[in-house]
Design goal:
By secondary structure, the chain is α/β, with parallel strands linked by helices. The chain has a 5-stranded mixed sheet, sandwiched between helices. Helix 5 packs antiparallel against helix 7. The relative contact order is 0.22.
Length: about 190
């Protein structure tokens, strides 16, 4: 059996400030609570024989992974296809501004100077397919809330990528076997096209 453990990064400063960040060049540190969440993730993963850790280009995912795997000999690899959504001109703005911009628009509409939710969804589906092509059997993935939410909902067969599961806790592991991750990739593609 293959197992993909996927977790959202631990709490960051921008989570507290309720601001959006889609640019991996912006270094957003973890909060003290976030560091503790990552250490709790370590306890949950302690008996999983991980062979690889995949994280995004965002420093908060790498730091979460480092804290969660401290003292373990697990190689790290960057997967840009799992990066958070490029929100373009909304970078650094409040979550309320982000939601206001989305209101009345479709998933196919691109954020000003950024990408669309469906475009990001197709990118996430490609990332999950790439993970499935890898030889490792036990993989930790540390990414962001949206790619994880899409995978959870798509694997369950939902007709919406944003539901029924919507809000996800930081540094909480979600388990996908190989068939579940394959279903997620296929369903994300179907819903985003």
């Amino acid at each position: 059996m293959r197992l993909f453990v996927i977790a959202r990064h631990a709490q960051s400063v921008l989570n507290l400030e309720q601001r959006v960040n889609g640019d991996p060049a912006v270094d957003v540190p973890l909060t003290e609570q976030g560091a503790e969440e990552a250490r709790r993730l370590a306890i949950q993963l302690a008996h999983v024989p991980l062979e690889l850790c995949v994280h995004t280009r965002f420093p908060r995912t790498r730091l979460t992974a480092e804290l969660a795997l401290a003292g373990r000999d697990v190689p790290f690899e960057v997967e840009p296809l799992l990066d958070d959504i490029d929100v373009g001109e909304l970078e650094g703005r409040s979550i309320d501004d982000y939601r206001a911009w989305k209101r009345g628009r479709s998933r196919k509409d691109r954020f000003p100077g950024g990408e669309s939710l469906d475009g990001a969804g197709l990118r996430y589906a490609r990332a999950y397919r790439r993970l499935l092509e890898r030889p490792e059997r036990w993989v930790l993935v540390v990414c962001h809330e949206i790619p994880l939410r899409y995978a959870i909902n798509a694997a369950a067969g939902s007709d919406e990528l944003d539901g029924p599961v919507h809000a996800l806790g930081n540094a909480t592991p979600y388990m996908f076997d190989e068939p579940a991750l394959a279903r997620a990739a296929a369903r994300i593609e179907a819903l985003a096209l």
